[in-house]
Each structure stands twice: as C-alpha cells, then as structure tokens.
Design goal:
The protein is α/β, with parallel strands linked by helices and about 290 residues long. Helix content is about 45%, strand content about 15%. Helix 2 (about 25-55) runs antiparallel to helix 8 and helix 5 packs parallel to helix 6 (about 190-200).
C-alpha cells in the first residue's frame, strides 16, 4: 500500500467507527433524519411567524369613538377653555376625521347646541377647524365668542347628546366628551344623575380631557368606568397635527412566545437529532508516542 493510500485509510478510520453491522443503524438514521426535518421546519416556521408579528406592533391607543358605534362629540367651548385647549380640540377633531368615525356634534357652555346629528361622517368636522381657535387669536370670529361662552354645565350637554341618540333611534351609541371637566358646583348632582342614565341606556361614555384639574378629574373618575378616561389625555400644544401623535407600544407577547418556542425547538433538535459525538481516533503516531 502506498503512503498516500495509507494516509487516506488512516483518515477514514479517524472519522468513522468500524462496525460489521452497518445495516442495523439504517432505521435509526432514517428516524433521526425525520425528527431533524420536523424540528428544523417547525423552528423556521416559528421564526417567520415571530417576524410577521413584529411588523405590526400592538398599541394601547384606542379609537376615540368605539368601533361599531355612532358617537356624539360633546365639545366644551366655555370661558375656562384656554388657548392650549383649542389646539388639543383641533387635534381631537382631526383624529376623528382620520378614524372616519360616524359622529354627531354638540357644543356647549352653560347651554348646549346640536350642530350635527348622529351618523354624520366625521369629514364634516373640517369646516369647524378654522373656527375653533382662541377668540383673541382667531383670524375668523368664533360665532360663540359673545353669546355662547358663559359658565359650564356639562350635565345639560350630555343629556342633549343622549336625547339625540335616542331621537334618531341609534341602536349602538356612544358619547365623547371633550372638556376640561370644570362644571358649575350646583351642576354636580345633575351630572351624576345624567351619567347614571347614560349607563342605563347602554350608551358608552368616554372622556377626552383638556388638561383638567386634579379635583375635576377625580370627580369624573368616581362617576365613570375605569377605562373611560385612560388613553385620551391631551398632548402638548406644539403637536397640533395628528401625525405628531405617539402611542405606547404594548409588550410584544406574541413575538416573545413564538421566539421562546423557536428556541425550544432548536434545543430539542440538538438534544434528539444532533450528530453522535465520539472520541477522536488516535493515529498510529499518537499511539506510539
């Protein structure tokens, strides 16, 4: 045997195990191949699913008008509304337009007035945007400047919104109150009764607060459901366009779960379908030394 043949023969012996019964391992090899293919395919599928779930992160931001409802926007234009509040009001209306909501519109101070009936496309709010500026800053005179900006009575505005939904026989209605939540002290008992009646009528009430005081916010938190106010806090006045809004991103649970299962499958692959680890064969020279 030549030197080259002896070298290759020694190399083959170093990478293999001499046996006289190779056929006995065939079923094991086939079974291991099938297990390896299943585990590798499952891991790949989980990685692809995790990547797909990460493309559309879930956010905590809710629609202003609950889905599958016709909403009435109740808009506070009383004297307590500040210049910054008007910026937040315009953002809220733009957001409703972007959400393509079906709405009605009630504006109020001490008395309410219905401007749009329930079921109106939110696109009809656009003409109001140029009017909803602070009276002292607006290039166009706000029609409510002199005669419609006295004290605040939130209860009568909510009652009018409820009556409008019932008048038009809206089966699934909701109300969105956009206000600093400051109401007259003698209006508080009426407000509590009105909110209770809205709940009994099956109408969902949500609040988009305009920088309310802690006392006003505590009053409404005591009268409303836990999630009626969450997620609707007004933003800073320098973010006047809907594109400036940011939403908190929820923990990507699906991504984490799919990633964990992918890692488990890879670990199972190494445990049940990995190559058999054998001691490296010693060469003749190593044995002689």
């Amino acid at each position: 045997m030549s030197i080259r043949e002896r070298f290759h023969s020694r190399r083959r012996r170093a990478n293999g195990v001499d046996t006289n019964d190779v056929a006995a391992f065939r079923s094991v090899v086939n079974r291991t191949g099938i297990v390896r293919a299943i585990l590798a395919g499952g891991a790949l599928a989980l990685v692809l699913a995790a990547a797909a779930s990460a493309r559309e992160p879930q956010t905590t931001e809710q629609a202003l008008i609950p889905q599958d409802t016709v909403g009435v926007v109740v808009l506070d234009l009383s004297l307590s509304i500040t210049d910054d509040d008007y910026a937040a009001i315009r953002r809220t209306l733009r957001r409703l337009v972007a959400e393509e909501a079906a709405i009605g519109l009630v504006v109020f101070s001490d008395v309410p007035y219905e401007l749009l009936p329930p079921g109106t496309p939110a696109e009809e709010l656009r003409p109001f945007l140029r009017l909803l500026v602070a009276p002292r800053l607006g290039p166009v005179q706000n029609p409510w400047t002199q005669s419609f900006r006295a004290g605040t009575r939130i209860s009568v505005a909510l009652d009018l919104a409820k009556s409008a939904l019932e008048r038009d026989e809206v089966a699934s209605g909701s109300i969105l109150l956009v206000s600093d939540l400051e109401t007259a002290p003698d209006d508080v008992p009426s407000l509590a009764r009105t909110i209770a009646e809205i709940g009994r009528a099956g109408i969902r009430l949500r609040i988009a607060p305009l920088a309310p005081s802690s006392d006003a916010l505590s009053l409404f938190e005591g009268l409303l459901e836990e999630d009626a106010i969450a997620g609707f806090a007004a933003q800073s006045p320098d973010a006047d366009e809907p594109e400036s809004r940011t939403a908190a991103v929820e923990l990507p649970t699906a991504l984490l779960v799919l990633g964990a299962f992918a890692l488990l499958l890879l670990a199972a692959h190494e445990r049940f379908a990995g190559r058999l680890a054998l001691p490296r064969a010693r060469s003749a020279e190593e044995g002689a030394s």
